[in-house]
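Tutorial handout. Part one gives the primary structure; part two gives the three-dimensional structure as tokens.
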Amino acid sequence: MPPSHEPRIQVSGTILHSHRPGSVALTIAWRTSEPLISTPSVRRDVLKVLVLSPMPEGLIRLFFAESMEKYKIEADFTTINEPGSDMLKKELAEADIIIGDYTFKVPITADMVDLMAKVKLIAQPSTGYDHIDLAACRKKGIPVTNIGGANAVSVAEHTLALALMLLKRILYGHRRMVEGYWVQEELLNVAAEVNGKTWGIIGLGRIGKEIATRAKALGANVVYTDLVRLSDSDEQKLGVSFLPLQRLLAESDVVSIHVPLTEKTRGIMGEKEFRLMKSYAIFINVARGELTDEGALAKAVTQGWIGGAGVDVFSSEPVGPENPLLAAALEGANIVLTPHIAGATNDARLRIIQATVENVVRVVRGEPPLNVVNQ
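Part two.
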């Protein structure tokens, strides 16, 4: 038989100590006859992967071990979650693959991209990627990927949970009962159903479509707005209707937003938009905090322009006491706040890990990565 061209492997792990708190280097041995990077005179046997997310050594080993053994890959993994350190600069110059920071603590700036001499992929283990300078990466020919729809179901379920809590005033009822009050009669006058309501979706991507399916199952009439309208057949299949943004805001009982943060979408929901909504409508943001004017949203709820708000994302995280939404919620407004957890279920995290690992392996094997966001 002819010799196999499959890379060959042995896997081992070593923890390298760093002088910088919060950083760990993990080495997993990988010897391959088909290296990721090669020239006529130079061959590399060890793939260097820089991880910017705060992932413990044991987890990194667990995430990659099966794929590395299957495809006979040998690699050094270094984890650094401290921006601006000398160690980070050194690793950027030596890395072949970068796994981004899902906490957004470590941005990837143009200056950092300039240091990347050999990087073939930046795999961002989240849906959002607005902390990465996509233009600089594109200019240098480095593809940036996200997780696609790996957390779409979790975010959709969280959106639905916020809507139900707001419509039925569940949090208010719980709080008053704990305080010793029986508010059954009071809530009978304000609680509502999803059934028969119009649910407006701003941004009908993967998450928006998952929400549409679930809202339809509860009997809602679903309308949407998006930069790219679906074909008539796709609208019919999903059971949704297109409306321009202003009409969607004016006609919907529930409005949820699911668009990426760009210069065009930043502040897309402000005082003007909230004033278009029905006085009893609710607004939900599980996408990016900067999509909304938080002060205007807090004002919209407290002054009765709209009926309530559910928010999982904020312009500054963790949220400080100066945030107007937090202040309004503390004063008893119909606002439900959660700490950016919509897509953070155990189920979604497993799919996120799988998507990230898959893209790293694809690039190592010479295949194009999936879910490229800077083409």
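Part three, for discussion. The domain at 152-337 is CATH 3.40.50.720 (Rossmann fold). Residues 1-44 have pLDDT under 50 and may be disordered.
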